[in-house]
Amino acid sequence: MNGDEAGPGLSCLVTGATGYIGGRLVPELLAAGHRVRCLARSPGKLRDHPWSGEVEVVAGDVIRAESVAAAMRGIDVAYYLVHALGTGDDFETTDRTAARIFGERARAAGVRRIVYLGGLTPAGVPERQLSPHLRSRSEVGRILLDSGVPTTVLRAAVIIGSGSASFEMLRYLTERLPAMITPRWVRTRIQPIAVRDVLRLLVGSARLPDDVNRAFDIGGPDVLTYREMMVRYAAIAGLPPRVIVPVPVLTPGLSSLWVGLVTPVPGSIARPLTESLRHEVVCGEHDIDRYVPPPPGHPIGFDEAVRLALQRVRDAQVTTRWSSASPPGAPSDPLPTDPDWAGGSLYTDRRELTVDASRAALWRVVEGIGGDNGWYSFPLAWAARGWLDRLVGGVGLRRGRRDAERLRAGDSLDFWRVEEIEPGHLLRLRAEMRLPGLAWLEMYVERDEQGRTRYRQRALFHPHGLLGHAYWWSVSPFHAVVFGGMARNIAKAAARAPAAEDGATTR
């Protein structure tokens, strides 16, 4: 049976829709004529996606059986696209529990198929020798296959696409290091796959026959070492040839620190990525082609996948990124808005300025903050704070922006995340750097009683314990420079910007 064969649309549940693959799969399912329901811990993160009005969004968590059961009602195909990548020591237990709940609730609801995207495991390597994350992904696949619901497990190695963690790691390592001493895993053979082919196979898997319950290896047409991938990336990107010298002394831990220092990918994510490259990961079969035959031009080769990804980056058309999902341990609670909030101390730094510019001009500066545009004050202090965050295992300052001009709820923005955005009026960011507490930064564009443009800025910090209080008081002497300078420089940048009509403040 052809996985793309036309038929009545199916009801599909997508978990992980706020993540890299899930956020791209939803519009593909819609384009194929399916109905989509998204299960998300923070539904607000999906609000500004262009497809949000075409899907049903329900709040819930895969480790909460009652919310999974509710989300499964009336579903034909359930996509399991969540992983505990980079979480704490107990992540395997969390993965195991979530997979069992998902399978049990799918069976109870009469779901016709589960589709899971896992990791390609090396042939002939005992499971105990695999990296913990690859081992856990393999176990999740087995649990779902044993759930009593026909399941498709797609096992991929390195996914090449704009914004993927694997692509960003490859891109930054190659672009930033003309000469490098590398760990020996750069000589490991890998079979990468283009993200477009991953999405094609995920969509096609929805219509597999009911008697298909198995794992499939998926990969592109090229088998390369990581060194060859870097060399070919450099050629495609128009960079001078790279000097790459593998050495045997870089352990996975040291490798993840090295990757974390050079690329935007933090060590918590870099480590499982590099650990998975210790063994050869090459497809042992291509049986999925019998069910989802590749159309002309597919599967996409490595060189073309890199060209497509680079073009997306250059055209600022990266729809989702590896950082679309919040990092492990990041705060998820929204800013408490009750003026009588009883959650404890809430320190505040406020700045207000009248701005000699239109509200539209000021909003463009506010919405364009971060990434290559910087933070409009004391760049060295921001850079130092980013490096400090990386050293303690945080995301650092180099995640940048998904889009150079526009933001949407849920976007990562350096070491912040967009918690709320009201176009033309409010941008609220929640800190995801390592802190002894919770922090937010708010920027408002308003009009005062005289009709003048007003900029209002508020930094808030909710300390955790004595260390949190000590942290606030230790950094508060620098607020005049950092936050005061930010407010003044944002106002100056808006005043220098070309005039614009206030009607342009909404999108």
UniProtKB/TrEMBL annotation:
Top-rank taxon: Bacteria
InterPro entries: ComplexI_NDUFA9_subunit, DUF2867, NAD(P)-bd_dom, NAD(P)-bd_dom_sf
Region described as Disordered: spans on this chain: 318-343
Pfam family for this entry, one: DUF2867
Biased amino acid composition, Pro residues: 328-337
Domain NAD(P)-binding: 16-157
Protein name as annotated: SDR family oxidoreductase
Origin species: Streptomyces gibsoniae
